[in-house]
Design brief:
Layout lengths: L5 E2 L2 E2 L5 E5 L4 H12 L3 E6 L10 E6 L5 H14 L5 E4 L14 H29 L2 E6 L11 H21 L4 E8 L8 H6 L3 H5 L11 H12 L10 E4 L8 H8 L2
Parallel strand pairs: 3-4, 3-6, 4-5, 6-7, 7-8, 8-9
Antiparallel strand pairs: 1-2
Family: Belongs to the short-chain dehydrogenases/reductases (SDR) family.
Protein name: NAD(P)-dependent dehydrogenase (Short-subunit alcohol dehydrogenase family)
GO molecular function, one term: oxidoreductase activity, acting on the CH-OH group of donors, NAD or NADP as acceptor
Length: 262
């Protein structure tokens, strides 16, 4: 059962409107459920209305991060229907070009547009509205790929850009009452792994030896980190890039095992 922190008798996010992008995905669904259970009014965004079927959503907006007109319309609809959010969770993202040989100009453009340009284009007006309002918390879902190279080079470059963008918000808009932080998950067992499992059904087992905890993280663990950074519990935390990766970026466990023989 998910815990529900309370402060002065109130649920943690009671009275808060939280916008979550990628709300219909594996991680997005976990984030939405956790925030709603802790009292938030959650506004879900995804590429299609069909993806936004969670009963935890109070409002739904479908748009395409690769389509500027679609983004602009969604921003206007959110502000009109739901008001300026108290918290913004930028979770949407996608990758398939897994190594340098898989890249071409079209894939580079698509993955940078989706994971960086589209995210910034959507977030920027909402962030500025939050700054005008004088308060707000923004959490970006990046990736361990933005910290060290684990493949997916175009996606990794885009996510590194997201880390930089979050720091820019933290530094430039902190005096306007905004905080911005980043969560960098390691591998999570969601539908994003289905294409890899189709090629190699044993791949999840192979992952275990790379992670100091002996396993990959689950979506609920990442959602907990997101909720913490979004909340008043992290009121003094801004500009932070937090790995939630079962120790992957702490060091190279196979080097210890295979070379040092520990």
């Amino acid at each position: 059962m998910v815990s529900r922190p309370k402060f002065e008798g109130r649920a943690e996010f009671e009275g808060k409107t939280i916008v979550v992008t990628g709300a219909g995905g594996g991680l997005g669904t976990a984030i939405v459920a956790l925030l709603a259970q802790r009292g938030a009014r959650v506004v879900g965004c995804d590429q299609s209305g069909e993806a936004l079927n969670s009963p935890h959503l109070a409002s739904r907006h479908a748009f395409d991060l690769l389509d500027r007109t679609s983004i602009d319309a969604a921003i206007a609809a959110i502000l009109d229907r739901d008001g300026v959010p108290d918290i913004l969770i930028n979770n949407a993202g996608w990758t398939r070009a897994e190594t340098l040989p898989a890249l071409n100009s079209d894939k580079i453009e698509q993955e940078l547009d989706l994971n960086l340009t589209g995210v910034m284009t959507f977030a920027d007006p909402l962030v500025k509205a939050m700054a005008t309002q004088g308060s707000g918390s923004i959490v970006f879902i990046s990736s361990v790929n933005a910290i060290a190279h684990f493949g997916n080079p175009a996606y990794a470059a885009a996510k590194a850009g997201i880390n930089a963008y979050a720091k820019a918000i933290a530094v430039e808009l902190g005096r306007s009452g905004l905080r911005a932080n980043v969560v960098c998950p390691g591998s999570i067992r969601t539908a994003a792994w289905d294409h890899r499992l189709a090629k190699d059904p044993e791949i999840l087992g192979k992952l275990q030896r790379l992670y100091p905890l002996g396993r990959i993280v689950n979506a609920s663990e990442v959602a907990e980190a997101v909720a913490f950074l979004a909340s008043d519990r992290a009121s003094g935390v801004t500009g932070v890039v937090m790995p939630v990766d079962a120790g992957l970026t702490a060091g190279c466990l196979p080097f210890i095992d295979d070379i040092l023989g520990a």
